[in-house]
Amino acid sequence: MRSVVRIPAIVLFYGVLxxxxxxxxxxxxxxxxxxxxxxxxxxxxxxxxxxVSAFIPNADVLFQTDFNGEEGLPETWSASHTVFEDSTxxxxxxxxxxxxxTPYQWASGETLLWRFSYAEGSQANISVSAGEWETASFRQxxxxxxxxxxxxxFWEGERYLLLGWQEGYVRLEPDHWYVLMIHIxxxxxxxxxxxxxxxxxxxxMETRQTFSDPGWDDLRWNASATNGPTGTLEISHFxxxxxxxxxxxxxxx
Length: 253
Hints:
This protein is mainly beta. It has one helix at about 10-20, and strands spanning about 60-65, 80, 80-85, 90, 100, 110-120, 125-130, 140-145, 150-155, 160, 165-170, 180-185, 190-195, 205-210, 220-225, 235-240.
């Protein structure tokens, strides 16, 4: 007969316990939570400042300059015999009537404004022009200063005419700041010139002229401030506004 070996029960108990203990899995290592990165909010865009007219409240400003840039002159403009200092353009005496010129960019319905001062004995011209000089196409509308006598004037081809002031009166003095307004008209509205004293804007004078000739219509104009053989002309601000809708030509500036 085959003999039977009997194993004590306590030995069996500890053997089973050891086997179970050997198969108990170790706990997984703790996972440290990772902070979720949130995108930074984008900065709010800075609104483009709306240009404010130095002269006409609530006007729709197309362009303005105080001649205080790196070169003192807007990039597309040109100048000669002119010194830029302290936000002022000083146009010196020269025999060729040179000065500051804008491109041919202004159109009917637009209004240009200049802050200007002149020295005693100066000869100067501030105007808008179109066409070719000394040809039938040439047109000019502006003011002429002859030794302190400032007069509205225009060129039509080779015809030159001085005009009188139709309304108001301003006592013009050298070395004093005034504002000149030049409005570019059309066959349907007059060309306008207006001057007022910056310190006393109630002192105004102006003249208007309607040109029915089609040669004055649908043009691109340049603006210029030039000085002649004597004296100096100073310009410290220029701006263009959309039209005259914000104030009456008949009323105060």
